[in-house]
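Invent a record, attention on tokens:
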Amino acid sequence: MSQSDVVYSCGSCGYPLNLSSSNRSTSDVGSSYQKSVKKELPDAALNQLRISGASLQSLSFYCCSGITDDGLEVVSIGCPNLVSLELYRCFNITDHGLENLCKGCHALKSLNLGYCVAISDQGIAAIFRNCPNISTIIIAYCRGLSGVGFRGCPGTLSHLEAESCMLSPDGLLDVVSGGGLEYLNLYNLKSPTGLDGLDRVGYARSLRFLNVRMCRYLTDDSVTAIASGCPLIEEWSLAVCHGVRLPGWSAIGLLCNKLRILHVNRCRNICDQGLQALGDGCVCLQVLHIHGCGKITNNGLASFSIARPNVKQRADEVMCIGPSIEDLFRLQ
């Protein structure tokens, strides 16, 4: 790795601290922290960022329960050239910390806020106001977000992980408002109203990878809106989406002409007719992940195989689809 990179992990979480850099010696910082199980990042580590953080482009904090809003202010001041930042499971980070961060780190492109449960839309909005080059953001399990903080997000935003979030219908519309989203993971998205609002995803016209696995309230109307509004979709996971019935499968077959990979594992309401609709359309389909679909008969599968012999049928159930979003946090 040619760019400077530093990784902090919290000893109290069972992860050793590992600091590595291509052009600095940080052995003293690492050893001092490994010997302590403090809830705050050691002064030596913070001082290291103040003194020599200007060359850093990538910085990761994993399970550092003690990294605070004040610590992010140090990062903002000491690391103005930061491009990639991971704050995974840093539970004590709040909106104030994100506001501190974006005062100085205007070059940020990739930001991992997974399990930062104390943040809200206010902090997300601050990031987008001050970091115009953001392309990748992870907000998995941040259930204090409705999505309205994404309103007016830049067109550079192309990858979003929002697994197990609680985004509102209006928030979903704001999420796609930038127009550049290509990868969207809404796996196990929670509905604050219990109703389907996923039709808003249909406004993401650049979308290529969509994971709505376990969105059980997803309806045919939303599937039709997405299939119609997102003509570039290449891979789509609808696994365990029990609300999708024949009209939804028919819409996918008719409208998703660039779909290469489709996941329908354990969908209770895909039947032989729905499978036939997929086979009659989806002209680019190469892989179909299918198993546990009780309404599909052996005859239905056989008919599909005869009609589409070049489509590979797989029984494995895949949780993550598309390109590895983690690679976007690794500077080459």
In short: The longest strand covers residues 56-62. Residues 3 and 45 are 19 Å apart (CA to CA). The first helix runs from residue 27 to 34. Confidence is low (pLDDT under 50) at residues 11-39.
